[in-house]
Write a structure and sequence with these properties.
Strands 2-3-4-1-5-12-6 form a seven-stranded mixed sheet. The model has no long low-confidence stretch (mean pLDDT about 95). The protein contains eight helices and 16 strands. The chain is α+β, with helices and mostly antiparallel strands and about 290 residues long. The chain has helices at about 15-25, 55-60, 70-80, 120-130, 165-170, 195-210, 225-235, 260-270; strands spanning about 5-10, 30, 40, 45-50, 65-70, 85, 95-100, 115-120, 135-140, 155-160, 170-180, 185, 215-225, 240-245, 250-260, 275-280. The structure holds 1-O-pyrophosphono-5-O-phosphono-alpha-D-ribofuranose and zinc ion. Zinc ion binds near residues 119, 142, 158 and 159.
Amino acid sequence: MSSRLKIALQKKGRLADASFELLKKIGLNFVANGQYLVLKCTDFPADILLLRDDDIPAFVARGSADLGIVGQNVVRESGKRVREIRTLGFGICRLAIAVPRNSKFKKIADLRNSTLATEYPNSTKKFFRSQKIPIRLAELSGSAEIAPEMGIADAIADIVESGTTLEAHNLIPLEPPIFRSEAVLVADPKLSVAKKKLLEDLLARIEAVQKAVDKKYVVLNCSQKNLAKIEKLLPALEAPTILPLAKKGEFALQSVTTEKEFWAVLPKLKSAGAKDILILNVEKIIS
Ligand code: PRP
Ligand code: ZN
């Protein structure tokens, strides 16, 4: 058996770009080889398998891939047994029930004995069964949004991210959604010890990237007379670093903070005498 980790990624679609970006950020680079669907990592013992997202849970569940990045929506609908290791903070969406605007359907219970078009038959059936509301399904492989206006269904159950597609088809979502979803790192439940080690390494890297996501590195200068006040104001993970500048009586402060906290405190920092303020991106934080 190969000792290289096989990581399944969506080839094209809502998660593809962000998945590749995450792997790059954690130091995994790969060479593309024309239309070949396996990419070799050049700096980590891993290969990327490019798949349709619907197929990722099955690949991981039977060990044909060791890891995968896929939407929780796809995992749930598949019913496959994979370990959900960590959510990844992108691909945030919901599986929603939506009805034509101005229809007689105002709440979910109004859909009793109606027909729903969906590419999520398992999740939809399970939801309505739990609500004890009988419905019929019109199963499609995509584009469920056009079903009501074509007279194929009364309503739909489909993924909503921005809501643009619903709006374009004059549909409105009902509450609550069937579930919420985001991208998740999944693993084969029966990984070898050696592959578990590789996974641990990747997880530590992912954690470092995730910790840095909303963080900024702030550098500013001030005169000695304002130093104590500014030091107190400046948000910091621990405490700001203070360094004397070559010019006597002048200091630099450095701090890691969230962007939100920084904007909130900026006016106060300025009126306290902070100068030459630089805001830099933080790539990784390792505690
Ligand atoms: C989903 C869904 C909608 C669209 C909603 O499709 O089926 O068509 O995204 O997004 P919006 O709320 O931002 O408009 P997806 O990208 O998952 O493609 P697929 O249905 O072909 O798998
Ligand atoms: Zn869809």
